[in-house]
Design goal:
With 293 residues, this protein is mainly alpha-helical. It has 13 helices and no strands. It starts with 20 loop residues before the first helix and ends in a 5-residue tail after the last helix.
């Protein structure tokens, strides 16, 4: 009997990459040193806030504080009480601007990104290229045109002059669009077959799926709005943000160096809190934004 030729069997060889304990220890030590190096500026801000003026002005400067004190915070409170506008009003201005601007920008960027990600019309790619191109322009480039625009609209000395430029940025649209590209089109088509409207698909399915993306966008937006200290559009003291007031205190000279150190610590706290709350979403978002179309 003739022997049957058996089809050749291909055995897929898989090689597992194994790392030695010494290699793991080296990587761990290296990453620990990098993390410590990145934490040093934050730690220095905290330490400086509790230094007396003599240690702040000492040369060469010392990293750690020898005689910790709360005089810097006391001086800051006294300075803010002497101003015409209460400290609470400036704080409310910054919190309102940061909270409202963050929520508004997330909604606008998400609604703009959805058709760019899931619409196959011919003009969509052209609009997306405009969005990408707009990221290249620094705020310094658009400062003069924006002032002319706000002045023409009569929005100088209003919160709209701070809010509208913040929510018109293109980075959020790019970020949300890239993350929405990872959502399978079959899910959207199945929802349409079931009779769901586009708004229901967007709010009921798309937004929950891209939660890591808009939490990441919230971190960046809140940080930028909280640090808004430019008085380009605002000239009334009662409408200035906390950052603008704190910057004026810090720039008052050597005598207020201690209060300036306390200001740096206070201004650093809210963005760190927002980051801690949303930090688990940052890595997931950054891992998906680079996926090709």
């Amino acid at each position: 009997m003739a022997k049957k030729n058996k089809a050749p069997q291909f055995v897929e060889s898989t090689k597992k990459f194994s790392r030695s304990k010494s290699g793991t220890a080296v990587i761990f030590i290296f990453l620990t040193l990098i993390g410590m190096f990145m934490v040093l500026p934050l730690l220095y801000v905290v330490v400086t806030a509790f230094k007396p003026l003599s240690e702040i002005l000492a040369y060469p400067p010392k990293f750690f504080v020898r005689h910790p004190t709360l005089d810097n915070f006391v001086d800051l409170i006294e300075i803010t009480q002497e101003t015409w506008i209460p400290f609470e009003r400036s704080l409310l201005n910054s919190l309102s601007l940061s909270a409202i601007g963050t929520v508004a920008y997330i909604l606008i960027a998400s609604m703009a990104a959805y058709p760019l990600a899931k619409n196959n019309a011919k003009y969509v790619k052209g609009l997306y290229q405009v969005v990408v191109l707009a990221i290249l322009f620094r705020p310094e480039v658009t400062r003069t045109p924006l002032y002319i625009l706000m002045s023409g609209l009569g929005l100088i000395n209003t919160f709209w002059s701070l809010l509208l430029p913040a929510i018109s940025g293109s980075f959020g649209v790019f970020l949300m669009r890239q993350f929405m590209m990872t959502i399978p089109n079959e899910l959207i088509e199945a929802s349409r077959i079931d009779g769901c409207s586009e708004m229901r698909i967007f709010w009921g399915m798309i937004m929950p799926l891209v939660k890591p993306a808009w939490l990441t966008l919230a971190i960046f937006t809140f940080k930028d709005l909280w640090n808004t200290g430019e008085t380009q559009y605002i000239y009334e003291e009662s409408m200035k943000t906390l950052t603008a007031v704190m910057q004026s205190i810090s720039a008052a000279g050597i005598a207020r160096a201690g209060a300036g150190a306390a200001v740096a610590l206070i201004m650093m706290i809210p963005p760190i809190i927002v980051f801690i709350i949303s930090q688990s979403s940052v890595i997931e978002t950054m891992a998906n934004t680079g996926i090709k179309d």
